[in-house]
Amino acid sequence: MAKDFTTMEENYSQWYNDLVIKADLAENSAVRGCMVIKPHGYAIWEMMQQALDKKFKQTGHVNAYFPLFIPKSFFSKEASHVDGFAKECAVVTHYRLKNSPDGKGIVVDEDAKLEEELIVRPTSETIIWHTYKGWIQSYRDLPLLINQWANVVRWEMRTRLFLRTAEFLWQEGHTAHATADEAIEETERMLDVYADFAENFMAMPVIRGKKTANERFAGALDTYCIEALMQDGKALQAGTSHFLGQNFAKAFDVKFTSKEGKLEYVWATSWGVSTRLMGALIMSHSDNQGLVLPPKLAPIQVVIVPIYKDDEQLQKINAYANQLKKELEDRDIRVKYDNRDNQRPGWKFADYEFKGVPLRIAIGGRDMENGTVELARRDTKEKHTVPQEGLTQEIAGLLTEIQDGLFQKALKYRDSMIHQVETYDQFKDVLENKGGFISAHWDGTPETEELIKQETKATIRCIPLNNPLEEGVCIYSGKTSTQRVLFAKAY
Amino acid sequence: MAKDFTTMEENYSQWYNDLVIKADLAENSAVRGCMVIKPHGYAIWEMMQQALDKKFKQTGHVNAYFPLFIPKSFFSKEASHVDGFAKECAVVTHYRLKNSPDGKGIVVDEDAKLEEELIVRPTSETIIWHTYKGWIQSYRDLPLLINQWANVVRWEMRTRLFLRTAEFLWQEGHTAHATADEAIEETERMLDVYADFAENFMAMPVIRGKKTANERFAGALDTYCIEALMQDGKALQAGTSHFLGQNFAKAFDVKFTSKEGKLEYVWATSWGVSTRLMGALIMSHSDNQGLVLPPKLAPIQVVIVPIYKDDEQLQKINAYANQLKKELEDRDIRVKYDNRDNQRPGWKFADYEFKGVPLRIAIGGRDMENGTVELARRDTKEKHTVPQEGLTQEIAGLLTEIQDGLFQKALKYRDSMIHQVETYDQFKDVLENKGGFISAHWDGTPETEELIKQETKATIRCIPLNNPLEEGVCIYSGKTSTQRVLFAKAY
User: For the whole model, what pTM was predicted?
Assistant: First the structure.
């Protein structure tokens, strides 16, 4: 299973790629930059989707579906938006193929050229706000709280499985509000939803903050984000929530009649997370034995493997294992009993370990005599022989313990990797030798931010929310600064 | 709500369009032929997805995700496949836009032309079988039972909301097997899954059958289908399951080593249902008062509406209604309590009626004194005053009764609309004056099928499974025939 598997210490980047492939999560496809999400990877994504979708609905959102294609002219309507996305989009120009005149294969039919080209959506603000114009007339139509699960395409030149792909899966929320305050409240609410999901489901601690003007979403007045730290000391932006002001309402002329009878432009937010979270999940917990999954997102939480010498022994184990499986399922624990006879127990152990199943139960003939099983934890690799009596209770407790343990471990690591520096030399030293987040004073100008980025490849990941005001001196320009910001090299 | 709503009798086609729009199910978008699925419509689609996804998983399938784009050359590899799909596909030719030289808007960047054009998937056999080549080596890798939920694009010239749209949502199963028998068994199994879903969830009776060679999926050896009858007497193909033989395995060179050590081509199936089912659902049960939903697919199964004179009365009703809501939810009944104060009860009644909520509970001040509520059924429009005691039990029973009732009603109608004819004159008479399915003898030739289609617009919907063999004479050619087939005009 773990043959030819690079260790994290050898080469973290290679370790990641090997892991994604060898744990059957995803692979590159025949189409440049597009991935195939394999069944094991997709099952984890489905767990993420379910948990997020539930949270969206609990906070009053409904799902809908908007077209894959966006007329080219829509992009030009919001000036900064088009600058942000035009450079990396797939363009549909024709709607038919025909047999090649030379009889070899098929060619584009030039008679079937579109009058206006269509863009494969890189994000849906424009088509959605064009649609909202028909849906919003009065304050009674607000707030409009809609989410979409969809595929989007951004023509990235350098791609990596899950982290940066030309096509990816995501959700994009698009809400409309009567006031700026309500829209900002929504922007922050959804950031909290993301942070809660990251910490309580992915067991991945995140820092909530705002992006600098340079790093804002194209068309936003304010971009909020959650930033996580990967095991190699690089940061990863795990989700964003944008306060769009009235930019898209103005671009698409969406006005409403207020309670006071005035005609006003609508206020907007948008927010999204994507299959990039799969990369974040992998790089938060996994190790040199493969994937480590937090129980809440593990498609299989417990696997049961029989170890038997003959059919008679197997029958006995089957009877017990099926009963145990049923009891666990009654507690809503996702369990698989793997009594396939074409693979040996050792092979199965290695396979489930590599694929990140949180708990493994092995049952042998001796166990059946003694009324015990062997319980192995994926996270700590501890193995214990435990009594069959009270086992389901024990397992339920252990799954909670593993979930908490993974979060605490990641939190401890993350906190140990936030370095406070006072000078640019310290900054570069930490960046080179330690990695992690660097908390430093910055003069607040895009110019300084850009120069630091060019010289060190570190970017301002965020200005943490509730950041304490603190007088200081910019590490780069020496100018006065009112607060620290978090820098890091990032995915 | 139902203002300007055309009746079924006036104009069935207009009634359908009005209903889709006015019940907030979907609308046309700014992109030709692409629809926006609105929240109410999408919520019903989500119910369908959940039920189907569960059935797929219960029959051993897993989900995965393959790229949106397919390299043009892949299409040419399976000869009949390319003929079937090349004429109606969206073609991506460029990957970048740039500012227009005249400063007005944006234009396609001719420097960013793709070496090979990409097709937006109209169906995924080619890209998936290309991928399967890497996944299948041995009989141990089989069967491979994979499903994908995705959007697809077919550039239809004449579109109708849900029934025929350029982009639509669907699932496509793609399975690989070691033997023809196993693949045929899978093809039939999935047809049964679809039929079971149609009848037990959509309350829509279907006929299981095989398509004639003319109507087969491009690349299939055999296409199985379920055919339903709409209220206007036209048939609708609700789902298809294809036995693909070794066509795609040969086109993409996918071989496996059998148990006997021989290298053989893999056998394939594919099967799909789409948002077209939304159209089928609407046209199976709805009426001149709007949408009628079978309880199993209704996002809201029960709506509770308070009728009150003052705040004191409302408080009392609130207390009871919230308790009732909780009790219903404990029985997994989807319930909404609508005590918004900005709409009157009459408006709410009409709105929920139009949107197809199966059961409405109205509670007034008098009801609270008498310990009763008013229960209204959407399907029969019956209203009854019933005691609050035992209400949740009553409601659970009624939902089952409504589900069954809708199916029985649709079945009775469908069965009454299967007409047996012996001559072409009878055939044309029934087609013109009655509609429905016509059971008639056919000589088995594509030529006759085509001529009948040209002359009458009726097509052979299917050769029903387990069709009795019966000697007869083709209604068109007079040649001998061994069995009857089902003709109809169809959506």
Answer: 0.97
